[in-house]
Design brief:
Length: 321
């Protein structure tokens, strides 16, 4: 952590003078917009190509049943170029952050995976601006570095939005700020903010139930990685625990109840499989030496192997105590 403090202290002059901006990707949902789509009718995978051309460079191989986003069949822009004949055969889309083209015959609509309307921006904020009229959701400090997060609901244009504002400070001077917002959908909050990573390299996490899990660099607030909702679908009311040595994050939510283990670099280590109708409503996750206990609203406690997520036993909470 001492190394981190020194690095941040060196960088504070740069970031306090230059506010960063990283607006979430927006799309034009016109008559050509198709939304999220699923890969179908192939044996193993299809090619994501650089251009709408069967001979174009392959950017990635997209596996069967994978979901691609921001799909559109707008071919007007290709009318005066060499892709005019082939373009109508392709759909423009995005897969794992790469934009490219997939033959339309290998895609079908998957509206259930269409990302919700969310907003994100980066602006320096004082602690007073972060808290606003909301409630403190995160308060962390080590040496002269601190992180504050607050949750607030605001009505705009007849919609109620949830806001999670997070900022990092050195000696109470702001060095970065981050805001995540999503339209309110139910009784539980869609947004959470917490610290994760390791003791030597702490990270700030923001969880948006309608968008995904976002890891922010402690030094500058930039997104280190994001697991979209469809890769890490947990729903609202998410609970979590972090192993401070490995940075492994264990998280579960109302869309589970099967917990997920995520490494500090954003890789899904395992997804547990709990096939028991009496296991629902995760309330708390406890990390033990070699396993984890997940306590549920239903009164059940599920013990999972820490390294592969295999269910060791399911017991009643009373007997566990």
């Amino acid at each position: 952590m001492k190394k981190t403090v020194l690095l941040i202290t060196v960088l504070i002059l740069c970031f306090s003078l230059n506010g960063s901006s990283a607006e979430r990707k927006t799309v034009v949902k016109d008559q050509y917009y198709l939304g999220a789509m699923r890969v179908v009718k192939c044996e193993e995978c299809v090619s994501l190509r650089e251009r709408p051309d069967k001979a174009s460079k392959i950017l990635a191989e997209v596996p069967l049943d994978a979901i691609v986003y921001y799909c559109t069949n707008n071919v007007k822009k290709y009318q005066n170029v060499k892709y005019k004949k082939q373009a109508p055969l392709f759909i423009k889309c995005e897969y794992e952050g790469q934009e490219g083209y997939i033959l339309s015959r290998y895609l079908e609509p998957a509206p259930e995976f269409e990302p919700a309307e969310t907003k994100q921006n980066n602006d320096l904020m004082t602690r007073e601006q972060i808290i606003g009229n909301g409630q403190v959701a995160l308060e962390w400090q080590e040496f002269n570095v601190s992180v504050t997060g607050a949750y607030e609901t605001i009505t705009e244009d007849d919609k109620t939005w949830e806001y999670m504002r997070v900022g990092c400070f050195i000696d109470d001077e702001p060095i970065w700020g981050y805001t995540e917002a999503v339209e309110q959908t139910g009784q539980y909050s869609n947004l959470k903010a917490f610290m994760a990573g390791t003791e030597d390299e702490p990270q700030v996490y923001v969880y948006d139930a309608q968008y995904g899990l976002i890891s922010l660099d402690l030094m500058d607030g930039t997104e280190m990685w994001t697991l979209l909702k469809n890769d890490c679908s947990l729903g609202d009311a998410a609970v979590y625990a972090v192993d401070p040595e490995s940075g492994m994050l264990f998280i579960a939510g109302s869309d589970g109840p099967d917990p997920v283990a995520i490494t500090a670099d954003g890789t899904i280590r395992w997804r547990s499989e709990i096939d028991d109708p009496e296991v629902y409503g995760p309330l708390k996750i406890i990390i033990n030496a070699y396993d984890i206990d997940v306590i549920y609203e239903s009164g059940k406690v599920v013990t999972l192997e820490m390294f592969d997520g295999e269910a060791i036993e399911i017991t009643d909470q009373e007997s566990k105590e």
